[in-house]
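Bit of a strange request maybe. I'm writing a small parser for structure token strings and I need a real example to test against, not something I typed by hand. Could someone generate the tokens for this chain?
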Amino acid sequence: MESEKTQKNDESGWEEISLLDDVAKILSLCESGNDSWKQLSEVMTDWTEKIQKLQSQVSNLPGIHMSINKQKELLAKEEKDLKEKV
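Reply from user aminoacidic:
Good idea to test on real output. This should exercise your parser:
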């Protein structure tokens, strides 16, 4: 059940994933009052898969595993090196 709009950026490999359609569907199913557990389960399964894709994409970002302080140190070092060159 692919209800969301996904768009893959071929240059970066980044896939744009939207959960808005899923949220709307969940709210609609809850509002209907019908016995829609199977449909809710399907939507939640899709949602879990999308979140896993997002986590994978984020974990592959450069520098994501470095602490903020380490990134600040590297930036300060680069700035210092640039000032010395000028």
